[in-house]
Amino acid sequence: xxxxxxxxxxxxxxxxxxxxxxxxxxxxxxxxxxxxxxxxxxxxxxxxxxxxxxxxxxxxxxxxxxxxxxxxxxxxxxxxxxxxxxxxxxxxxxxxxxxxxxxxxxxxxxxxxxxxxxxxxxxxxxxxxxxxxxxxxxxxxxxxxxxxxxxxxxxxxxxxxxxxxxxxxxxxxxxxxxxxxxxxxxxxxxxxxxxxxxxxxxxxxxxxxxxxxxxxxxxxxxxxxxxxxxxxxxxxxxxxxxxxxxxxxxxxxxxxxxxx
Length: 260
Hints:
The structure is a single chain. The chain is an alpha/beta fold. Strand 5, helix 5 and strand 6 form a beta-alpha-beta unit. The radius of gyration is 18 Å and the shape is globular. Strands 3-2-1-4-5-6-7 form a seven-stranded parallel beta sheet, with helices on both faces. The protein has helices at 18-29, 41-53, 70-82, 105-133, 153-176, 191-204, 208-219, 227-237; strands at 9-12, 33-37, 58-61, 87-90, 136-140, 179-185, 249-252. It starts with 8 loop residues before the first strand and ends in an 8-residue tail after the last strand. It has eight helices and seven strands. The protein is 49% helix and 13% strand.
């Protein structure tokens, strides 16, 4: 299926590994040039090499998007390297789990700094470029925003805010010709997930498969997702095959969310 993405330029945040890496790889496989961001320079270089091996251009940035002015600098780098921008995937950010009464103000500030405020600032900085090319913006939230739980107070709040902000941008996008959507993935097989499984296996002495099955039951999903699952959906959303998809928040969750 021709997706009309050859020669497009994509910026994917948090793309040195995990979901962001999967999204970047999927877009490159369909012909996009990609700007990668993250804090691990070695992992970024490996990701860029993999994209170059597909015959596409790749550049990297280690800017800390929590810092004031970093998003504007990143967009300047994109403009210098690629001349414009067609696709922005706001993916960077993780939040701390734990007892609400024990989570500190710093925990909350850190959770919102990267996964909400950096998303907002980057969208604002990138908007003129996206408007110029009638581009597409996709925000990666999480099913915690649809199914809040006591142990995921920060993440649930942040992901709900990401979805609401995305809906607001979609309304503006109708005027400016920018497609805007949001994805809420459920539990995805990433390094962070594997660390959680390993820690619980070592703590309890139980088999890894038992821990995996328990987490899948906890999330009420048919299986763990993969970074390819998310990358494939993002690639379709921003393609020429999905131009009528606008203002949507999609639960990519293996059946986790039980309500309409």
